[in-house]
Amino acid sequence: MQKLFFILLLSFFSLHASSIKVAVAANVSYAIQDLTKEFNKKFPNIKVKIILGSSGKLTAQIKHGAPYQVFISADMKYPDALFKQKIAITKPKVYALGSLALFSHKKMDLSAGIYALKRANISKIALANPKTAPYGIAAKEALTNAKIYKELKSKFVYGESISQTVSYAVSATDAGIIAKSSLYSKNMKHYKRKENWVEINSKLYTPIKQGIVLLQENPDARNFYNFLLSNDAKNIFQQYGYKTP
After folding, report:
1. 95-109 pLDDT, tens per residue?
2. 244 in a domain, yes or no?
3. Within a domain: residue 186?
4. By residue range, what is the domain housing residue 216?
5. β-bridge partners, 197
6. What percent of the chain shows pLDDT beyond 90?
């Protein structure tokens, strides 16, 4: 009898539980766990399945029919493209503003900002691929505007996404240009500002407006989409170094 009760109880929860698939740009990977936890306080029966990747790669998957309900991009370009092609059903909205940071796992004088990359003892520099990652586009723009891109180009080691770039910067290169948000993750918090990282002058690159779109009309997906634009979500984004609109 007890066994039957548990079977019926599990059946009840399975009938009332649902899941959504959310495509998430790699730079948001550091905040997404806290965001889903906060969301589940309000909607405990909605399981959020996260698919991480570069914005470009996720967009290609979506165009080829990947069954995602929400797309959280690292820029506005890719969501705009999906909306114009009538793949996204909502006009892109900015949920956060990202920032670049210069990082080194070695302690060094970073008072020169981005120009610290010119030092002779820096032979490899991690950079997100500008072809697939919006943070790579911003990094390239910053280096170009600082007039050191061509000088340093031979030293670049490209990551497919910003999370891979962070991995390279921590273990395989002397320095890297990464998302500031990554420095607030549990694995990166021990690195110190001014000793291991500094913000890159925001005047050197176009503001990284990060956009979100709804891909399918689904009540659960709509709830998650609305949550990511709420004040509760904004508070979490700010804790991870983002600015919010």
Report:
1. 999 999 999 999 999
2. no
3. yes
4. 2-97+207-239
5. 103, 193
6. 88
